[in-house]
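Thread: "does anyone have the structure for this chain?"

Original post by V.I.:
We have the sequence but no experimental structure in hand. Need at least a predicted one for the grant figures.
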Amino acid sequence: MSGSFHETGGETGAVGTAGEADSVGGADGVGTAGEQVGTIGRKAGRGLRWSLLGNLGTKATTFVTGLVLARLLVPEDFGLYAIALAATTFVMHVNDVGIIAATVQWRGRVEDMAPTATVMAMAFSAGMYGIFWVVAPYFAELAGSAEATPVVRLLTAIILIDGVTAVRAGSLMRGFGHDRLTKANIAGSLVNAGVAVTLAANGAGAYSFACGQVAANTVTGALVLAWAGLPFRLGFDREVAVRLLRFGAPLALGLGIEAVLMNADYVIVGAVLGPVALGFYLLAFNVSSWVPSVIGTALRYVTVPSFSRLAEQRPESLSLGVQRSVPLLVAFVLPVAVVTATLAPEIVAFLYGEKWAPAAGVLALLAVLMVVRMLISLAFDILTSAGATRATVWMNLGWAVTLVPALWAGTHWYGIRGAAIGHALAGVLVALPVAALVLSRAGVRLAPVLPALVRPLLGAVVAAAVTVTLAGLTSGVTDEVTGGGVTAGSAFVRLCVAGGGGLLAYVLVVVPVTRLKRFGARVIPARAR
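Reply from O.Q.:
Generated one for you, tokens below.
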């Protein structure tokens, strides 16, 4: 599975009929903007619940696997894998020329375009893999570790699976059938964990990651084909191909730039500082990606089909959907970012141990990028749903033009922390303003969003102050017991006390009192009160 809708774990789900996917506001698609948003919102809500469940399951498995691998492997192994991951992320974004997104956004019967789209996805995936097989040694050398070449070649092989399953994956997401998607993702993650840990325990090093991922994608891809409910036929219709390329080519370019944005730091850090420093950076980046991976990926499975159906109706329906979505997204992400930024040393020490301590300073800075990535990802999905794929190119290009020199300068200036600073500054000062501009030019009204952001931003400030204060008070007690330093035990205490206090302060500021009272009335039985 590829494109902007998944990571390298694949996806599947139950496909609905064309009428089921396309009807909005009743059988004829007629209704007010609010009714249309409500109808699609209910379908998206069901899909989101399954997506969140699936992502929590897969990420929990990945998280535990990462903890085990961090103790079995050394930072250099993580660095070699980071190089292969950078290459794979890029080819996964561009290899199907936007076929998955085109399938989700397709105006008409999916069955009519599926044979042509399947041929195109398979052909482009095979061609892209051939290119990267040849350039893998040069890419690895550019990233500072020529020995990563075979790992790059192995891991990028997952795009061949993606080419076969791309159209089926798109049709599954189009139908909001995320129950089977969840089962397939979890199955793949379990296979990944078993293979990766077994190989790492037997000295396979960086190959542990790559082999586990290839095995996972094979299993998930097989389930996609089995559960899609879309006949596997091959054919070619020139008119359909032109429509797909007109939509997908700009999207693939935008996604390719997005892949550069998310992986240029791996290449630059590896080239300047070597694989060991890159291993520390990768660990920090992975932790900062938990929320975008769990919540962001789950949202992406439903936002594109949801916004696509809204965009088919009235322009105000899309704007209203965006206005409701952005404040909710910000409200959920900000408290996690605050706790991550303020308690980064405790998170790293508790989860991974003292040998990974250099990653803590990077993690604190990348917490800012966490919020930026979530908002940019949502903006990308909105533009894709509206058919404004060329705007995605300009949005990501504007970010990339500033990010690459910022990463290069930051890494030379301040090491892996400098790379994180460059990433965060480029995101806040360039990416977010450009995203707001292109959304406005696409007809999405963002002004009504601003008042709804005041309370979450205020809550974040209060939560940060409370977390820092409680962490300082708690450290005084734990240091007397441990003799100073951040141990796993003292880190756990600070995470519970300071992190819990900060999250509670955030909730008290952000959630209205009336809603808290209603929640309390439901949770606490009448007799207990």
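V.I.: this helps a lot. The chain has 19 helices and no strands.
O.Q.: and Residues 54 and 182 are 4 Å apart (CA to CA).
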